[in-house]
Automatic annotation (TrEMBL), chain A:
The gene is mrpC. It comes from the Bacteria. Belongs to the CPA3 antiporters (TC 2.A.63) subunit C family. Pfam families: Oxidored_q2. Its main location: membrane. This is Na(+)/H(+) antiporter subunit C. It comes from Flavimaricola marinus. PANTHER family: ANTIPORTER SUBUNIT MNHC2-RELATED. Keywords: Cell membrane, Membrane, Transmembrane, Transmembrane helix. It is found in: Cell membrane. The chain crosses the membrane at residues 32-51, 72-96.
UniProtKB/TrEMBL annotation, chain B:
The keyword NAD does not apply. The lineage of its organism: Bacteria, Pseudomonadati, Pseudomonadota, Alphaproteobacteria, Rhodobacterales. Residues 936-957 are annotated as: Disordered. NDH-1 shuttles electrons from NADH, via FMN and iron-sulfur (Fe-S) centers, to quinones in the respiratory chain. The immediate electron acceptor for the enzyme in this species is believed to be ubiquinone. Couples the redox reaction to proton translocation (for every two electrons transferred, four hydrogen ions are translocated across the cytoplasmic membrane), and thus conserves the redox energy in a proton gradient. Keywords: Antiport, Cell membrane, Ion transport, Membrane, Transmembrane, Transmembrane helix, Transport. Residues 66-110 form the NADH-Ubiquinone oxidoreductase (complex I) chain 5 N-terminal domain. It is a multi-pass membrane protein. This is Na(+)/H(+) antiporter subunit A. One of its GO terms (molecular function) is antiporter activity. GO terms for biological process: monoatomic ion transport. It comes from Flavimaricola marinus. Residues 794-916 form the Na+/H+ antiporter MnhB subunit-related protein domain.
Length: 116, 957
């Protein structure tokens, strides 16, 4: 099972990086979202994998999973929504303002930019 | 009055002029005057203690671990400078009130002036050198604002930038020097540093520290070769020049040299550096000043020259030199400020400062003539005026100073400097006031109103008073000198008096004055010679250096930072993988301590779904709508995974966030193209794939290895599990960590979330105000729209569901402390309920029913959480300490009341506000575009009389 989780993290990372390296904004946003999953699962997994022992205190329970990574990841999930929303808004603004959704500046003619 | 108050008053008072701006110019200047006066009186209340030789101190620990504390001290030297700053400040404020034109923003001016005043007072009263550095930088910044006060003048802006560059660089150097000094002594307190002369001068780091500190002092006090910024700073309004560039700021460097005198002076290095720079500056400044035609430029270079003189005196390292320096600082402040103000009056009245266009003003402006002439004669060193006394002391000191084994070098240069100094003073009097009355002044001059000439007249009274009766100020000068010496040398026995007998200094003085008269009578041939001689133009050199630095950094930055995001991302990936590989290859991996758990077919199926969805997303990402569906699958599998691995809270959060994220991306896709075109080459895609796989394999290897090993040190999680119920009163440990153990973290996070939402809102506003608005209005949808935008079934369903959603949200919120749930999840659930209303019934219908703006909801959330935290202060506990109790109200069961629930309410509100504000902003863009506002929530409503034909969308507005 550990291998499944580790490989899932690997696959999510690889997919995320590949999409982040694309040239248009939308795939880059998708890539960042995939990376977010990868990072969240990675952080969550730092508490090691435990099945059937949620960190809810009860009299009958003998063991609990590590609650700390969960608390950290919970806020990370919510914050990543905020971050995604900001990035999407910036991408949208760039596209609506310049009719262009490339992530790179036009690297061929940097001199023309300086003149302005 | 406490020293804190003396320093703080100008800063606090800086708020007032801006507020009083609308109340009129008199009120604005009046309140500034009152603030300065209060600080001045506060300072004077400490005079008895200072006269008694006590050291007045005040101390608050700020960051004791760094050695940075707010410690202030007041001794003779500090008192002397603070008195100059505040006293002359009062005169300048009066003068500026009448000097500034009606169109100048007076509130802004006085705000800057008070900021500057506070910073200056801070420098001279600081007992901690780190605090002193903070104030030092503040004077650079506030003087930048003051020099560039007339923003419409290019000279003002350039002069301000130059001053900031030069003094800022010096400030940086001085930070280095002060840190070294603090390190040598082991304390950043001046009072401690000043006791350790031997330790400092014996240290191998003495020379670097000295050079760095002197760089700071020389740039600030415009010493050669950094003297060039001061004349350019004269683009400032004259009150600023009179205040900063004669009496106060440029003396900050001198103040510091005097302050550090006991520990830094007396070594050959100090002597050569300080005396040498001072001598060169003194002669150079005096010569240039003579040939300047701009009245203020002449005064600026004369200030440079006099600062050089004072620096030279401090450099000699003798007690008598220090006393002469202190006395000359006092005298220079009086006559030079008076001269600057007179120059301002002349400029104000004749509309020119060009000496060649002036002359004969003594008949037209007799009062100004009297003031300026007395001040100028004092500067020239004419007996019975204060300038004569300190100049004689300077010549006396120079006579005994041996530099580079020469008995003639220093005295000779001192006489030369004094000679030119006398010459430009005579030129100022002769070419501006004497001579025939002209008929071509740009503006017919006459003496100004008393508000303008009274402040300089007051100073001239001092000039004459000290000049005639020096014994009145001698005790004070000796007191200040004693605190400069700091016990390292005996107070000089000499007295300040007009007649010392036929001493060498007298002959030198006479030579200088006579020589000055000869030079000024031969001015025109000398000027032709000067104009013909080639000489370096400091501004051109400065601009060339700055231009070179800018070009160099452009080349470096454009080489690395070429605007290609893809490139940065690739570089970062390669770098992280490489560093990780290095660690992997050089470190050791311990044996596995955990047994791998066996996976069931269901889990393998879930894994396969996730992998398939991710690969599908990568392969099919060009179809953007499809990629949203696929990423939804990934999110769902991750949520299910969280449930499976004992994290119900995470699963609920992930699931709800998933919903709002997908809605957000759909809203964005509404505007973005639906497909991604193929642009990159096969080679490039292969390269990216290799990078991605490398990164994926690396993270996989890392995760796999740590999943099979226990932590090396015991985890702090046990503490949280053990104390969650006992200390926090909740059984859901994750929630207790969020709202209690790490509540401060959570507090920061909801603030971040709120800021993100506000940022989105602001970006939307900016977009809708700009050219994008027109484009949106003209935009035609590319895809056919649904005929029925608000289907009846959906509208009815969402309305029925709404109370249920609220109830579920409320339930999740309440149970959060003990069961999976809490503010974050409840906030997301309730947001989804609202979003459904927007989607089903339309934007206009929903926002019309909105009672509170979302910004307000975010604010209320952050406030609630913050106030809950502050509440614990009232019972003497630290911020965010929580408390809980159990109550029983019949007929209910016993239940728990916890302050953490209030905090969680804040979290809830902030999350709702942030999510809704983000989504609402996106849909506001859509509203401007092509979607007509609908009058009714449902397109087809049986209760209406005129059901429109759904196949023909209504066309009326």
């Amino acid at each position: 099972m550990e291998f499944l989780v580790a490989s899932a993290i690997g696959v999510l990372t690889a997919g995320g990086i590949y999409l982040v390296l694309r040239l248009r904004t939308f795939p880059v946003i998708m890539g960042v979202s995939l990376l977010t999953y990868a990072v969240n699962v990675f952080l969550f997994a730092s508490g090691r994998l435990t099945v059937g022992a949620p960190p809810i205190l009860s009299d009958g329970a003998v063991a609990y999973t590590d609650p700390l990574p969960q608390a950290l990841v919970l806020t990370a999930i919510v914050i990543s929504f905020g971050m995604t929303a900001v990035v999407v808004m910036i991408a949208l603004g760039a596209y609506l303002g310049g009719d262009d959704d490339h992530v790179d500046d036009d690297t061929k003619a940097p001199a023309a930019e300086d003149a302005s | 009055m406490s020293l804190f108050l003396v320093v703080a008053l100008p800063f606090l008072g800086a708020l007032l002029p801006g507020l009083m701006n609308t109340a009129g110019r008199a009120a604005c200047a009046g309140v500034t005057f009152a603030v300065s006066l209060a600080a001045f009186v506060g300072l004077l209340t400490n005079l008895p203690a200072v006269l008694a030789g006590e050291m007045v101190t005040a101390r608050i620990d700020w960051i004791p671990l760094l050695g940075l504390n707010v410690t202030l001290m007041l001794d003779g030297l500090g008192f002397f400078f603070a008195m100059l700053i505040l006293g002359i400040g009062l005169l300048i404020i009066t003068y500026a009130r009448f000097y500034l034109a009606r169109e100048d923003n007076m509130g802004e001016f006085f705000t800057y002036l008070l900021l500057f005043q506070g910073a200056m007072v801070g420098i001279v009263l600081s007992d901690n050198i780190l605090l002193l550095l903070v104030f030092w930088e503040l004077t650079s910044l506030s003087s930048f604002l003051l020099i560039g006060y007339w923003k419409h003048l290019p000279e003002g802006r350039q002069g301000a930038r130059m001053a900031l560059t030069v003094t800022g660089m010096g400030g940086l150097a001085m930070i280095g020097g002060m840190l070294i000094l603090g390190n040598i002594v082991g304390s950043y307190d001046l009072s401690v540093i000043l006791q350790n002369r031997e330790l400092i001068q014996g240290s191998p780091l003495y020379l670097p520290a000295l050079i760095l500190i002197l760089l700071g002092c020389f740039t600030k006090s415009a010493q050669f070769p950094f003297h060039f910024w001061l004349p350019h700073a004269m683009a400032a309004p004259t009150p600023v020049s009179a205040y900063l560039h004669s009496a106060t700021m440029v003396k900050a460097g001198i103040f510091l040299m005097a302050r550090m005198w006991p520990v830094l002076s007396g070594t050959p290095e100090w002597f050569v550096l300080v005396t040498g720079a001072g001598l060169i500056t003194m002669v150079l400044g005096a010569v240039i000043a003579l040939f300047k035609h701009d009245l203020k430029a002449l005064l600026a270079f004369s200030t440079v020259s006099h600062l050089g003189l004072i620096t030279m005196l401090l450099g000699t390292g003798t007690a008598f030199g220090a006393m002469a320096a202190v006395f000359h600082i006092m005298n220079h402040a009086t006559f030079k400020a008076a001269l600057f103000m007179s120059a301002g009056i002349i400029d104000h009245e004749t509309h020119t400062r060009d000496i060649r266009r002036l002359g004969g003003l003594r008949h037209l402006m007799p009062v100004t003539f009297g003031i300026a002439t007395l001040a100028a004669l004092s500067m020239a060193g004419i007996p019975l005026l204060n300038g004569f006394l300190s100049k004689e002391m300077m010549l006396e000191e120079a006579y005994h100073t041996v530099l580079l084994d020469s008995h003639w070098l220093v005295p000779g240069l001192a006489v030369l400097g004094s000679l030119f100094s006398a010459a430009y003073c005579f030129r100022l009097i002769g070419h501006v006031f004497l001579g025939p009355v002209r008929d071509d002044y740009p503006h017919k001059p006459h003496d100004p109103e008393p508000g303008l000439w009274l402040p300089p007249a007051f100073l001239v009274v001092l000039v004459v008073g000290i000049g005639i009766a020096p014994f009145l100020v001698e005790p004070f000068v000796k007191l200040v000198t004693a605190s400069v010496l700091g016990g390292t040398a005996e107070l000089p026995y000499q007295h300040i008096k007009i007649w010392h007998g036929l001493v060498p200094a007298l002959y030198m003085s006479i030579a200088a004055v006579v020589g000055g008269l000869i030079v000024v009578s031969a001015f025109n041939p000398l000027l032709r010679l000067w104009d013909a001689a080639p000489r370096p133009e400091a501004k051109r050199i400065f601009d060339a250096i700055i231009g070179g630095v800018v070009r160099l950094s452009e080349r470096v930055i454009h080489g690395v930072h070429n605007g290609s995001f893809t490139r940065y991302a690739a570089i970062m990936t390669v770098a992280v993988v490489a560093v990780g590989y290095h660690a992997w290859a050089t470190g050791t991996v311990g044996p596995a301590t955990r047994v791998p758990q066996v996976a069931s077919p269901v889990q393998i199926a879930g894994w396969a779904m996730l992998v398939a969805a991710t690969l599908g997303l990568v392969l099919l990402h060009r179809n953007r709508l499809l990629s949203l569906v696929l990423i939804g699958i990934v999110g769902l599998v991750v949520s299910v995974g969280f449930v499976f691995f004992s994290a119900p809270d995470l699963a609920m959060t992930q699931l709800t966030v998933e919903v709002v994220t997908i809605i957000l991306l759909l809203l964005a896709l509404n505007f973005l193209p639906n497909r991604t075109p193929i642009e990159s080459t096969v080679l490039r895609r292969t390269r990216d794939a290799v990078l991605a796989v490398a990164a994926g394999v690396a993270t996989m290897a890392l995760s796999y290895h740590y999943l099979l090993r226990d932590t090396i040190s015991p985890s702090i999680s046990e503490f949280h599990l053990a104390n969650s119920y006992k200390g926090g009163g909740g059984t859901n440990v994750v929630n207790v960590i969020l709202v209690d153990f790490r509540g401060f973290d959570t507090y920061g996070e909801i603030i971040v979330l709120g800021i993100a939402a506000l940022l989105i809102y602001a970006l939307t506003e900016a977009l809708l105000d700009g050219p994008v608005r027109a484009r949106l209005l003209n935009r035609k949808p590319t895809d056919p729209r649904a005929g029925d935008m608000h289907p009846m079934m959906m509208v009815v369903m969402t309305r029925v569901i709404m109370p249920v959603v609220m109830l579920v949200g409320f339930y999740i919120f309440l149970r959060g402390h003990n069961e999976p749930g809490g503010g974050f999840i409840a906030g997301l659930v309730v947001s989804i309920g609202f979003v459904m209303q927007y989607m089903a019934s339309g934007f206009a219908w929903t926002s019309a029913r909105l009672r509170y703006p979302y910004h307000g909801v975010i604010g209320a959330g952050v406030l609630t959480a913050g106030l809950t935290g502050i509440g614990s202060w009232f019972v003497g506990k630290p911020f965010l300490t929580s408390d809980y109790t159990y109550v029983r109200i019949p007929p209910f069961q016993e239940f728990e009341l916890a302050t953490a629930a209030l905090f969680d309410l804040g979290v809830f509100l902030a999350v709702v506000g942030a999510v809704m504000l983000s989504l609402e902003s996106f849909s506001r863009l859509a509203r401007r575009a092509h979607v007509p506002d609908v009058e009714h929530p449902m397109d087809i409503d049986p209760s209406r009389d005129d059901p429109p034909d759904p196949l023909q969308p209504r066309t009326e507005a």
